[in-house]
Amino acid sequence: MATSYESKSSFHKPAICLNRVHPYGIVKKHPNRAVFSILAYAISETNPIGNFLCEGKWIMKIGYIRISTTDQNTARQEALMQELGVNQIYIDRLSGKSLDRPELKKMIGYVREGDVVIVESISRFARNTRDLLELMEKLNEKKVQFVSKKEAIDTNTPTGRFMLTVFGAVAELEREYILQRQKEGIAIAKEQGVYQGRRPIVRDNFDQVTDLWRNGQITAAEAMRRLDLKSSTFYRKVREKGVRG
User: Fold this and answer.
1) How many of the other CB atoms lie within 10 Å of CB of 135?
2) Measured distance CA(231)–CA(229) in Å, rounded
3) Rg (Cα) of the chain, in Å, rounded?
4) Rounded CA gap, 87 and 3, in Å?
């Protein structure tokens, strides 16, 4: 759920203001951003309020909050967001083990160049280094700044960018260790004659569903949904069965 706040403190102006955006060029599906930008454009040559403006563009602070269950309370994180002058927050009430979070996706789609995404801690944003780096890549592509209050990470500073580089190196090292342990475990299991490989994925209704798909009665996406299979697994098993769509 996205929530808007009136900012009670001035914005932190990014060290690099990227480009001038005319307010009437704002994407129509974000009317509140358009209103902010029209106001910013009107006063950009006079006396901007605090450091809200960057070359005529309204820089927004976007907060992201996550709690693991509905029993937990968001009050502490929301208080921090208000203290930091956040304009709008997105709140997810589910585990962070997956990036498939509705409000996280909305936030990533909403932010624009020059905006700042703020979280209380990295653990609220991502549960592992790989997910964190994937999210950071998306923000970097949109030229959005990231701030984590607890770890004092700010990607607008050399130190913040360095720390993310270290996270990337650690993640790569973790992947190499995992692969090495897997290889060693498989080798030992083979020596002991107990290695069986991956368990085959079996769906009792596979033939029935793929027949419907082959006959054009359902789409491939619907067939995957009914079988609870990923795209790669679905088409691999289709090839093994000799089914053609």
Assistant:
1) 18
2) 6
3) 24
4) 8
- Residue 194 has a pLDDT of 73
| Tokens encoding 177 | 């260790």
3-class state of residue 4 by DSSP: strand
**Residue-wise DSSP of 62-97:** EEEEEESSTTS--HHHHHHHHHTT-SEEEEEES-SS
Average pLDDT by stretches of 10, the chain with 245 residues: 53 37 37 52 40 62 89 88 93 88 94 94 86 90 93 89 80 80 84 74 87 91 89 86 57
d(CA 176, CA 172): 6
Q: Tell me how far apart the alpha carbons of residues 114 and 105 are, in angstroms, rounded to a whole number.
A: 18
| pLDDT number for residue 155 | 92
Chain centroid to Cα 127, Å, comes to 11
CB 68 within 8 A of CB 94: yes
The pLDDT assigned to 46 comes to 41
Backbone dihedral region of 15: left (phi > 0), alpha (psi from -120 to 50 degrees) or beta? Answer: alpha
Measured from the Cβ of residue 192, the count of other Cβ atoms closer than 10 Å reads 8
Q: Which residues are catalytic?
A: 68
> In terms of Cα–Cα distance, which of 196, 195, 206, 197 is closest to 233?
206
Q: Are 126 and 132 in contact (CB under 8 A)?
A: yes
pTM for this prediction: 0.54
φ/ψ region of 111 (left if φ > 0, alpha if ψ in -120 to 50, else beta) reads beta
